[in-house]
Amino acid sequence: MFVSRPEVIHKVGANIDSLDKAVATVPRHQQKSAQGWNLSIRSINLHANRISKLDGRVLKQFSNLVSLNLSGNEISSIESLECCPLLEDLNLSSNRISTAHGLASLVYLRKLQLAYNLISRLGGFMDIHGDHFVLEYLDLKGNDIKELDQLIYLKGLTKLRHLILAGSQSVGKANPFCHPEIYQRSVIFELLPQVLSVDGFDENGNPLTAPAIQYSKFTPPRSQ
After folding, report:
1. What contacts 82, CB < 8 A, 6 or more positions away?
2. Using CA atoms, how far apart are residues 90 and 125, in angstroms rounded to an integer?
3. Which run of H or of E encompasses 19?
4. d(CA 154, CA 150)
5. 30: alpha, beta or left, given left = phi > 0 and alpha = psi -120 to 50?
6. Cα separation, 105 vs 84, whole angstroms
7. What is the pTM of this model?
8. 21-69, pLDDT tens digit by residue?
């Protein structure tokens, strides 16, 4: 399925194996309609393809990107995202990622989905510690986190408000430390006092839905 609007590239389930091939599907008339067409692209959705690499050669063409969805691909590492410094929403769920290193350049990132990967250790999140990062929503369900102590690496995410660790046990695998007989959200709230909800519940056990991300009003510069 191909959907094309002036600010969107959307090609889902198309058996594409690289980012450059995805860009090649953009109609030529769209590319020729205006100089700097690529700078108008705000959102790219390439869910459920066969992409194995975040290719900086391609990403640098879309420096005004605010939303990138590469879930359901074959990516093994987070890299080259310094080419998209304005990213606010990044979905890399259901890939083959084993570490969260590679996010240090994303100072505007507010929503990060890394569910159903191979992550067992969270030290990579130290790259985005500090008040100058604005990550609010983090989804880590369905990984391989075995130890509750790994969550200590999330303490430095000072703007984090909504954290997903367990999700629905019926959907797929769960982090080993989220076994129903030992998993206690109250412990997580104590460890991470900045967080308002864990798995969609507040500290008192009431359902709390994270608000939809409202993207910034940033307007891409005109091409010269």
Report:
1. 56, 105
2. 15
3. helix 19-24
4. 8
5. alpha
6. 9
7. 0.91
8. 999 888 765 665 555 789 899 999 999 999 999 999 999 999 999 999 9
